[in-house]
Amino acid sequence: MADSLPFPIARVGIIGGGQLARMMVKAAKRLGCTCVVLDPTPDSPAGQVAGRQIVGGYHDADKLRELAAATDVITYDLEHIATEPLMALASGGVRIQPAPELLALVQDKLTQKRFFAQHGIPTADFTAADSLTPEAFAAFGFPLVQKARRGGYDGRGVAVMRGPEDFDRHLPVPSLLERFVAASKEIAVIVARGADGTCRCYPPVEMGFSDQNVLDLLLAPAAIDAAAAERARDIALKTVQALNGVGVFGVEMFLTDDGDVLVNEVAPRTHNSGHHTIEACVTDQFEQHLRAVLGLPLGSTEQLRPAAMINLLGDPASQGAARISGMRQALAIDGVCLHLYGKDTTKPHRKMGHVTVLDHDIDSARAKAEQVRALIKITGEETL
What we know:
Blueprint: E1 11-15, H1 19-30, E2 34-39, H2 47-50, E3 53-55, H3 61-70, E4 73-76, H4 83-91, E5 95-96, H5 100-107, H6 109-118, E6 126-129, H7 134-140, E7 144-148, E8 158-161, E9 175-179, E10 183-193, E11 199-201, E12 205-209, E13 215-220, H8 226-243, E14 247-256, E15 261-267, H9 277-280, H10 285-294, E16 307-313, E17 318-325, H11 327-331, E18 336-340, E19 345-346, E20 351-358, H12 362-375, E21 377-383
Parallel strand pairs: 1-2, 1-4, 2-3, 4-5
Antiparallel strand pairs: 6-9, 7-8, 7-9, 10-11, 10-12, 10-14, 12-13, 13-16, 14-15, 16-20, 17-19, 17-21, 18-20
């Protein structure tokens, strides 16, 4: 039959073995795919469920070639990968999605911002931080945000400076300076784009962050008016279409007091702001990503119930072999969905899992999520 597919449907290679890859592997198995994970840590979260893991670094050209030889298509769950060997593999016919050229563009926060400006995508004013001096920062104007061009993740590589007195906290790395945005809300839109250009957007979500700038509480859908939600979807869609991306993209944005929507940054992968889709939406972000990179039709992004999500982070005062407390009490609450990532050791603020709470209204879901946050603690055997 012309529409028949082999089994397994595809052999999927995933660069990175963290929690995003772990959840992607589970979705891949539902779709009849096998997976091979490349990660430097033996028995990584994704390697535990994939069936096969190649132990190696993300910059190891030999290991990347080994992954390519064992799979039909390659994708990734993080941005910090060597793109040159990926481009060489792609030029030799290896399917890699999103494309290595796109990954190279967004890896550098400055080139990413310049791309936004070139394509009319609204974003905060910025400039290259060619000179890391008090005078250069003052010339740009306070308050400002300094961002490392490369390597920033989960709040690392970002310094907020309210005035000249904060300069001592500046980052001594190649950077950009960005105008500080007094946002009324930080929101995100997950966009899926197929190889044929078909796009699907999930409803905008609202994000609250911890002191370490790690996503702490997510509310889906965001409590914003219909006009703002439509603007956010339109801008997120324009961003991903301009990138010509294939896969799922997390587009983080600011909503200002004036109702403007500004793109903060884009991640060319599944995203922490889309974890709730596993329980709350018809098609979760991980299955959607696989559908896109495999050339399958995209699924419905309809949200079925309101949801709140919290990250479960390692206790800030301990590290070592992990112990979880409060789990029984949390699971006794109706609507609680617990995801642990298979990490047997913890350290301060390490992402160890997440909880999604479903309810009939977002306020009830939020209240239960905050109750769970107070109950569940993940500690290590060694006190710091």
